[in-house]
Design brief:
The complex is a heterodimer of chains A (57) and B (453). The relative contact order of chain A is 0.13. Helix content of chain A is 65%, strand content 0%. The radius of gyration of chain A is 15 Å and the shape is elongated. The longest helix of chain A has 22 residues. Chain A is mainly alpha-helical. Chain B has a domain of 221 residues: Alpha-Beta Complex (Amidase signature (AS) enzymes), CATH 3.90.1300.10. Chain B contains 15 helices and 15 strands. In chain B, helix 8 links the parallel strand 9 and strand 10. Classes of the chains: A mainly alpha (57), B alpha/beta (453). Chains A and B meet through helix 1 and helix 2 of A and helix 9, helix 11 and helix 12 of B.
Chain lengths: 57, 453
């Protein structure tokens, strides 16, 4: 997901923003994409998303 | 006798008002005087209604008993993302405002309990920040050193309580916005279980994590405020931590906190052992991934919460908030769902750790550092330079994922600057957190509670 997303997001930022703002959002997006890579490495197969307040088992 | 608002706790003021030793009018006047002396420097309040505060205090003079009006005459600072009738809500922005005719539910509960609502406290713009910076109205300043940040986003209530400009504060917490400024300002902040305090009348940031809760000088004070905010008693019948099993989140100490903070939290653990609790080190497997999970979810929810306003006036948002919202609106649904899957995984892992070690609560630092200087971009932790915002969120965002209550309580000072310990427990276990927090500030424990003059 992160790799495919990186291409789409960076393209969207380049299209929509200019100058300093583009750089700031790009830097932030790179951090967020790094977060997503971390998330993707987790064993999420079959895990239900948290919906609403957590109820501890 | 002159009233010194910097020395009073909610608990003591309540007792003195009940016995007739202190009058609500005297107390409110003392707080208003303190505001006139120090708010220009501290910028804790964005709005103060002196005449309305005096009118509320006069009404409290003839009020009922502590049982009927448990906060009678207690001056409160309300974070400016929470509606107070007939006061503007700006959410810390200069381009957004509403003028509510009614109180947020949480404020209405405080008022019905006899509290005096003094004014609106400073905040990061839309509560979207952890450092207390506000480029529109100016930063709140840390009462322990005005050249240091307060932390945020509930910067105003924390600075007001620490500086004697209020006895209690009402704030909100998404990733640490009650606990971080409480830690850096040397006061106590309490994040309730998700959903326990109604959010009607509060500007949203991220629904998965948003809560409203109290800031005060002591855990006992937070307990009194929380009783009212939750609409039911949470005060623990037995304030002793004896018999409780507490997991010390070892990973958040070594390498992730400054040595004096780690030592302070270990000292707190030792104090609790001395009071009859068992404290064991625990290391939940993926805890270090929690900030990434938190951020992914928050980015998308905040972008959605702001969609309508942002489309109309994005250029008027502060640059940092604007960039975060811009980023959040670009993230697709599958990134958000992956974040919520990862959150479920982390909650289950921590719940497993709690079950395996038969724990009642968790203990960690509330912040890894004392208050950084206002112009600092990074802090040094061990050998690493860490961005201030990432460092400040690193201890509290993981706990926000869990949904349960958490408190920040003073745990020591370093070079005159305070830092806090954080206590967390399973959803609904407010009383357990309060037992531990109260014990750390109790008569048998070292006194770290600090006010400033």
């Amino acid at each position: 997901m992160a790799e495919d997303l990186a291409e789409r997001l960076l393209f969207a930022v380049a299209r929509e923003l200019e100058g300093e703002r583009r750089n700031a959002v790009l830097n932030l997006l790179r951090e967020v994409l790094a977060d997503l890579e971390v998330i993707e490495r987790l064993p999420l197969e079959g895990v239900e998303p948290q919906a609403g307040p957590p109820q501890w088992p | 006798m002159a009233v010194d608002a910097t020395e009073l706790t909610v608990s003591r003021a309540r007792a003195e008002i009940e016995s007739g030793e202190l009058s609500p009018v005297e107390l409110t006047e003392a707080v208003l005087e303190r505001i006139s002396e120090r708010n220009r420097e501290l910028n804790a309040y964005l709005f103060v209604d002196e005449e309305e505060a005096r009118a509320q205090a006069r009404a409290a003079e003839t009020g009922g008993s502590a049982a009927e009006l448990p906060l009678r005459g207690i001056p409160i600072c309300v974070k400016d993302i929470i509606d107070v009738a007939d006061m503007p809500t700006t959410a810390g922005a200069d381009h957004w405002r509403r003028d509510p005719a009614t109180d947020a539910t949480s404020v209405a509960r405080l008022r019905a309990a006899g509290a005096v609502i003094v004014g609106k406290g400073n905040t990061n713009e839309f509560a979207y920040g952890i450092d207390g910076h506000n480029p529109h109205w100016g930063d709140a300043r840390n009462p322990h050193d005005p050249e240091r940040i307060t932390g945020g986003s509930s910067s105003g209530p924390a600075a007001a309580v620490a500086g004697g400009l209020a006895l209690g504060g009402l704030g909100t917490d998404t990733g640490g916005s009650l606990r971080v400024p409480s830690s850096l300002c040397g006061v106590t902040g309490f994040r309730p279980t998700l959903g326990n305090v109604p959010l009607r009348g509060v500007v949203p940031l991220a629904w998965s994590f948003d809560v409203a809760g109290p800031i005060a000088r002591t855990a006992e004070d937070c307990s009194l405020l929380l009783d009212v905010l939750q609409g039911r008693p949470v005060t623990p019948p037995d304030p002793s931590p004896a018999g409780l099993r507490i997991g010390l989140l070892a990973e958040l100490l070594a390498d992730h906190s400054e040595p004096h903070v780690a030592e302070g939290v270990e000292r707190a653990a030792q104090t609790l052992r001395g009071l009859g609790a068992q404290v064991v080190e625990v290391r939940p497997r993926d805890l270090h991934l929690a900030p990434a999970v938190f951020r992914t979810i928050q980015l998308v929810e905040a972008a959605r919460a702001h969609a309508k306003w942002f489309n109309r006036q994005r250029e008027r948002y502060a640059p940092r908030v604007r960039d975060l919202l811009e980023c959040g609106r670009l993230l697709p649904a599958d990134a958000y769902v992956a974040g919520q899957q990862a959150r479920r995984l982390l909650v289950d892992e921590i719940a497993d750790t709690v079950r395996e070690h038969r724990l009642d609560a968790l203990l960690a630092p509330a912040t890894p550092v004392t208050a950084p200087r206002r112009d600092a971009a990074t802090v040094t932790i061990g050998e690493r330079e860490v961005p201030v915002r990432a460092a400040l969120l690193s201890m509290t965002a993981p706990i926000s994922l869990l949904g349960g209550p958490a408190a920040a309580v003073p745990a020591g000072t370093h070079d005159g600057l305070p830092f806090g310990a954080q206590i967390a427990a399973r959803p609904g276990a407010e009383a357990t957190v309060l037992r531990i927090a109260t014990a750390l500030q109790g008569a048998d424990a070292p006194q770290w509670f600090a006010t400033t003059n």
